[in-house]
Amino acid sequence: MILSANAKLWIKAGALGLMGSFITADTLALELSGYAGAEYRYFQHDSVISSVGQHHPSLILAPELYEEWDGGKQSLLFSPFLRLDREDAERTHADIRELQWLLVQDDWELRVGIGKVFWGVAESQHLVDVINQTDLVENSDTEDKIGQPMINLSVFQDWGTIDLFVMPYFRERTFAGKNGRLQAPLVVDTDAAKYESGAGRHHIDLALRWSQSIGNWDIGLSHFYGTNREPQLLLNATATALTPFYETMHQTGLDAQYTTDSWLWKLEMIRRETHSDTFIALTGGVEYTLYGVFETDLDVGLITEYLFDDRDDTQQTAFEDDVLMGARLTWNDAQSSELLVGLIQDLSNEDSAWNIEASRRIGDRWKVSLEGRFFSIHDDKSVLYPVRRDNYFQLELSRYF
Questions:
Q1: pLDDT band at 138 (very low <50, low <70, confident <90, very high)
Q2: For 160-179, what is the mean pLDDT?
């Protein structure tokens, strides 16, 4: 079982978040929410890497505590997360997703502690979303993120919003263990991680973002300097495991969305510079929504995106020349029923990957979710080749409180 070794850091960040709050015992009225759930993954095939089985059950607990005071100008949010996995010791883990104090003024906001920040507009991948580290043991879609210690100042002006970030501590990426699925070719030895910066995890990362809505346009322009969230995986001295190596990087990003009638036009583009490489990547496309199909409450969104990476190296990226085709179905019913289906097809070979996500509420407090990931990978040089037999269905039942 892996419980984060950063307890002291979390305590310090939480203490910073309380500075200036002046909370007294009689003002506390914490709001408790969140969910607990049971998840079951079934893999269609045996792993090509390990002898681990096809059945992977796990339990999840994700509470959230929220308190505000000072007329709503100050608040504290605490969101811990715990997963217990029967098979993979690396997937059994705990994290503090958020432990953040927020101060709101007329034209600025200050957040201090551990937080989550999302940037991006595309469906298939979020190139510009660089603040938080990916929690890869949670889901292969890279949507789940680890809490990031930070100080975030947001300034609101007529000409746009400026976000400044100071990040004093780096969170390493999680990887499946020897009994997990969706593995790298060898087990990733996270305890042996190396850094380009002599400061290691304590390198101070900085980020700046400007965002603005101009007519039908929503635009964001960002720059990040700090530790690359995507490590290189290097063979260790005994050729028995992979060692994560985290370079320092500069990344400039652009995200833009144009909304008109039933159309959403989306673009994400980055230029990333490290000691070993400099490249440009982009994801752009369109989503068109058909409302009230067949005179019902059903809305159908049709999605197409193009994914490009000028490294043109399938061992570094799975999306150097690919296209996404998908559909989003929203029933607009009392149960909030939704279905998302997508296919990513490599335009230079026959490799492809399918994704299915569906969810529906049951009553006021229950929710059932279904996911499916299916890979058809033939190129033995592809970064996805080791997971070519890791097709799986995932069923989750959650109770919200």
A1: very high
A2: 97
CATH class of 2-18+34-400: mainly beta
Residue 117 and residue 129: Cα distance in Å, rounded? Answer: 8
How many whole angstroms separate alpha carbon 370 and alpha carbon 57? 14
273-322 pLDDT, tens digit per residue, is: 999 999 999 999 999 999 999 999 999 999 999 999 999 776 788 899 99
Q: DSSP of 46-83, one letter per residue? A: --SS----SEEEEEEEEEEEEEEEGGGTEEEEEEEEEE
Q: Is 12 helix (H, G, I), strand (E, B) or coil?
A: helix
- On the question of pLDDT at 9 being above 80, the answer is no
Task: For residues 3-14, give the mean pLDDT.
Answer: 42
Burial (CB < 10 A; 0-12, 13-18, 19+), residue 326, is buried
Do residues 244 and 229 make contact, with C-beta atoms less than 8 angstroms apart?
no
Task: Express as a percent the part of the chain with pLDDT over 90.
Answer: 87
The total of other beta-carbon atoms located within 10 Å of residue 222's CB is 22
Q: Identify the H or E element spanning 17.
A: helix 7-18
Residue 47 · residue 176 · CB < 8 Å: no
Give the Cα separation of 176 and 40 in Å (integer).
16
Cα–Cα distance, 391 to 352 (Å, whole number): 12
Q: What is the pLDDT of residues 170-205, one digit of tens each?
A: 999 999 999 999 988 899 999 999 999 999 999 999
State the pTM of this model.
0.89
* CB count in 10 Å sphere of residue 300: 16
* Measured CA distances, 332 to 41, 105, 132, 203 (Å): 28, 36, 32, 46
Q: Return the structure tokens found at 387.
A: 């997971």
Which CB contacts under 8 angstroms, 24+ apart, belong to 258-264?
258/216, 258/217, 259/216, 259/218, 260/216, 262/288, 262/289, 262/290, 262/291, 263/287, 263/288, 264/288, 264/289
Q: 115 near 98, Cβ under 8 Å?
A: yes
Instruction: Examine the pLDDT at 13 and tell me if it is beyond 50.
Output: no
In the chain, where the domains are located: 2-18+34-400
Look at residue 27 in the predicted model and tell me its pLDDT. 52
Please compute Rg for the chain using Cα positions: 22
Collapsing DSSP states into helix, strand and coil, what is residue 182? coil
CA–CA distance, 35 with 61 (Å, rounded to integer): 6
How buried is 401 (Cβ within 10 angstroms: 0-12 exposed, 13-18 middle, 19+ buried)? exposed
Q: What is the 8-class DSSP label of residue 189?
A: -
